[in-house]
Amino acid sequence: MGKSKAALPDLTKVIELKMDFTAARLQRGHLLLKQGKLDEAEDDFKKVLKSNPSENEEKEAQSQLIKSDEMQRLRSQALDAFESSDYIAAITFLDKILEVCVWDAELRELRAECFIKEGEPRKAISDLKAASKLKNDNTEAFYKISTLYYELGDHELSLSEVRECLKLDQDHKRCFAHYKQVKKLNKLIKSAEELIKEGRYTDATSKYESVMKTEPSVSEYTIRSKERICHCFSKDEKPVEAIRVCSEVLQMEPDNVNALKDRAEAYLIEEMYDEGKSLRNLICDT
Q1: What is the predicted pLDDT for the residue at 56?
Q2: Architecture of domain 104-198
Q3: Fewer CB under 10 Å: which end of the chain, C or N?
Q4: Are the CB atoms for 81 and 90 separated by under 8 Å?
């Protein structure tokens, strides 16, 4: 059923009742190895070899002991690489370890940190999500996942993850502070989008200006806010303002289709037909 943590106490009790039960000790060694508890796993495999095992059990224990030794060596190399800030090398070593130690939460968190240092936040999120399931009450993982989503501009997923942190510890200071920030930003964005649906473009523009003031340090929110302000000006038939703001967005994201489209509409409103047609052709190519 994949419930290794629940299996370990039963296997341990079996071994207490019958010390020479090699099948139980071998099975516990397998689970400990998968959890990255290498010293404990090696101890079980060595004891299997000392307790008159069957031929198959002896071969398996020897094989697993060799594998455990290899994992020890790789883990030492991964830690050395991390300490030396060689994050690509550390990731390479950790990839190999985690093929065997699939339930090791600490190593997944370490690889996530390497991914963050290498500018690959989505890969870090994947490891941290696994770590949050492998380790009980892992508030730190939920906090990191939330902040990574936030920096990527995904405020809704950020809010969802920080709530998971607060479910585990409602007094968690960093999670609570982050929760207040994300909740405020999320409320502003949702309100702005509702105003756009209602055609209240001036009010929506004001809301998105508040978004930029609320979070000036994460560029993703500035870009998305300006993109939506550009849209509001275009829909509100304010071509001069729309062209200005859309152009600001396109300086940051030259291939932003929404900004290209809205600037094209603004050009047409201004009767700048050549510019409008040129942009529409560019949008089609994009």
Answers
A1: 92
A2: Alpha Horseshoe (1.25)
A3: N
A4: yes
